[in-house]
Amino acid sequence: MINTIPKSVAMVRPKSFAFNPQTAENNAFQHELAHFTPAQIQDIAALEFDNMVAMLKAKGIKVMVFQEQDSNTPDSIFPNNWFSTFTHEVVLYPMCTSNRRLERKSTVYKKIANDLRKPLNTQLLKEEKKGEILEGTGSLVCDYASKTAFAAISPRTTHKALDRFEQVSGYSTVRFDALGPDGNLIYHTNVMMTMGSTFVIIGLDTIAEEHKTMVAAQLTSLGKDIIALTNEQVYSHFAGNMLQLQNAKGKQFIVMSSEAYSCLTSEQKDLIQNKHQNEIIAVPIHLIEKIGGGSARCMMAELFHA
Length: 306
What we know:
alpha/beta, globular, L-arginine/glycine Amidinotransferase, Chain A, 11 helices
């Protein structure tokens, strides 16, 4: 069985980070910043990206950085949506918008498959042609030990794609509806839910009433300590979008944005840091969050070795 807390991540340094009008149709977390030029937006995003990489490496976390070469991929900074490595294969995922499909670079996924000594699985890409979408670990928040994936249904996380994922991966899925700040289905599960080895950080109140008890019961049955977030913390501060990592010495971390950290209560921080023994790494990525509508977790794709 794979170690359930990854020790390394892949990240993609953007070439032309920008507001993406294609994804904005169902991502209520995105915002245009008209008073910045495209060059300024890219420069600031690159600075935030490089600083985050440096902060992770300073804690002994391994980071594989790829430089995006394409000017038509404004969201390339969020690679966790198009591939994953938590099964015995490197899996490619069906993406919702045409410009995000351009992010799937063979130079990236072939190197990752080679380095991890894992075969490539492209079966889910057949669903993309049918309009069935599943955007990687944006759509899937997984408990790796039990092979359980939690998934908030949305235009980017469809039932038929989840059915196919179950066949491909051997995982079972827990499906539910959750609402975003605009009252529509939340675009990605990982903006309202973070899975740790012994805990889960979750915006329970974003979940539809008819599904809330079921989701909480499933998490409890897996032995997870539930750390509940308010809707304000999820919607305005990206507090649901975190990732648990460890370094080579086995020290555990939870990576989040400084925006997310700023809104956590002292009790929530105490549970994460003291009860569950995870040091917090809070990275300042204000512009990336504002324009991209994704946060720290979205920027990291976990690398699990065979």
